[in-house]
Amino acid sequence: MNSFPVFLSVIYVVRNQVDLIESIVQRASEKLRLLVTDYELIIVDNASNDETVNELKTLTGKVGYPNLQVYVLTKEVNEDIASWVGLENALGDFVAVLDPMLDDIGALPEILDKAVNGADVVFANNLQKPHQTFTYRMALAAFNFLYKSFNGIHLTKEAPPCRLLSRSIVNFILQHPQPALTYRHLPVTGGFARINIDYSANPLTLKQKKLGESIDRGMRLLVSTTQAPMRLVTSLSLFGAAANLIYSVYVLSVGIFKADVAPGWVSMSLQQSGMFFLISLVLLVLGEYILHMASLSNEGPLYHVGQEFTSARMMRRERLNIEVVSSSVKSDSLSNSHRAIG
């Protein structure tokens, strides 16, 4: 396989993977060395509390692996924010984001080929996934239904976390006021040329995602990517007002045209229960928006890099010290040498 003449950045987010981290880096380095002319492997440590950071320091030493950059976060954040740490520091013409536990770097040649041939963003979906609980699957299905209703896309299928972005896409997302929040959906909703591919590979881990964190992440995506939930609030409010007006007309009509009016306990109870149901829905959506706005205004930076270190050997830095001499200059030098000797 011929290598692609591009500079590729690959981003891995890891946490507490001390036993697997060297094999992960080794396999990635072997694949990337043959795949492209230049690369960098960016490891974002998501606040590991084992010996992963020390192992990464060893891997970037003089006897370690080249082209490795490590960013260690001081506190655990969600996967999108951790991935954006790598994207902000990536220098490549193309940037690939993969989960080393779930995604196979062996699919990268096909992904990169699509990007080199004109796709702005390539999404890759591993058909083999860890088993999730029934509750998680139901919550995920509900989220995808709502997101597709509001935005017209199935986020899990059409914009999976494994992706390769062109430099222009990364620069475009950087201009957004909240790039870490929009990174997940903007490449698929921004009108860019995109391609989705499927592949099948055994994941390295069978870990299950946390339902609470996934719900929080999903709500952030819903309220930050569309105004549809707020439109739903106004629609429900309008419907409630219209229903109250119609019911009032109905009550007046019954009082005027019907002599033997039964006690209004049933109708009053139905009215109260129905209106309280609508009010509850309105308050639910409004509450999510209020929570989202409060989090944006009150929270500090989304992440903080506590440590940062790179490999002792960086191939692109070594190439900076190589001076290319043209053949004409070489021939002139040789002829001058012969004259001097003569």
List the SSEs and their pairings.
Blueprint: E1 4-14, H1 21-35, E2 36-45, H2 52-59, E3 68-73, H3 79-89, E4 94-98, H4 108-116, E5 121-126, H5 134-151, H6 155-158, E6 163-166, H7 167-174, H8 179-182, H9 186-189, E7 194-199, H10 211-225, H11 228-257, H12 265-298, E8 305-310, H13 315-319, H14 327-341
Helix pairs in contact: 5-10, 11-12
Tell me briefly what this model is.
By secondary structure, this protein is an alpha/beta fold. The protein is built from 14 helices and eight strands.
Describe this structure in words.
The structure is a single chain. By secondary structure, the protein is α/β, with parallel strands linked by helices. The protein folds into two domains: 4-225 and 300-319, Spore Coat Polysaccharide Biosynthesis Protein SpsA, Chain A (Alpha-Beta Complex), CATH 3.90.550; 228-298. The protein has helices at 21-35, 52-59, 79-89, 108-116, 134-151, 155-158, 167-174, 179-182, 186-189, 211-225, 228-257, 265-298, 315-319, 327-341; strands at 4-14, 36-45, 68-73, 94-98, 121-126, 163-166, 194-199, 305-310. An eight-stranded mixed sheet has the order 7-5-6-4-1-2-3-8. Helix 5 packs parallel to helix 10. It is elongated, with a radius of gyration of 28 Å. The two termini are 49 Å apart. The model is unreliable at 320-342 (pLDDT under 50).
